Amino acid sequence: MGMLSEFKAFAMKGNVIDLAVAVIIGAAFGKIVSSFIEDVITPLILQPALDAANLSKIEELTVFGSVKYGMFLSAVINFIIVAFILFLLIKGITSMRKKEAETPAAPPAPTNEEKLLMEIRDALKNRPQL
Question: To 10 degrees, the CA torsion angle through 68, 69, 74, 76?
Fold first, then answer.
């Protein structure tokens, strides 16, 4: 097997494709979270604090003139939001699985032997007594 065909077999495995899709979705999700923080959270919740510090973005927060702890604070807020959303997703999936596990499975259909035995039983019940 040539190196090219081995690479093709490796690249087309389900796990590699699933991982690639997960990375792409993760990157897109990261952009959504960043937009949520910059466009929703900051204006609604953090704007009074930023106005008091005469800043327009959380990333502009500095201490000693050069240490930009605002970028770190923004990353922490991003992480907390992502972790909370993942927590809610996992909790929802777990509760759905728990509900599926709690519902009892339908009893299996009787086998041909059981059906035959039931027919014999019913025939013996319906037989006139001597």
Answer: 140
Altogether, the residues listed in the chain come to a count of: 130
Q: Which residues pair with 67 in a beta bridge?
A: 63
> Mean of the pLDDT values across residues 103-125?
86
The alpha carbons of the chain give a radius of gyration, in whole angstroms, of 31
Residue listed under structure tokens 């999936």: 93
Quick: pLDDT tens for 73-93.
878 887 888 788 778 888 988
Beta partners for 101?
none
Alpha carbons 106 and 13: distance in angstroms, whole number? 36
Give residues with Cβ within 8 angstroms of 74, minimum separation 6: 37, 58, 59
Exposed / middle / buried, residue 38 (Cβ in 10 Å: 0-12, 13-18, 19+) = middle
CA-based end-to-end distance of the chain = 81
Q: What is the mean pLDDT of residues 42-54?
A: 78
Could you give the 3-state DSSP secondary structure of residue 19? helix
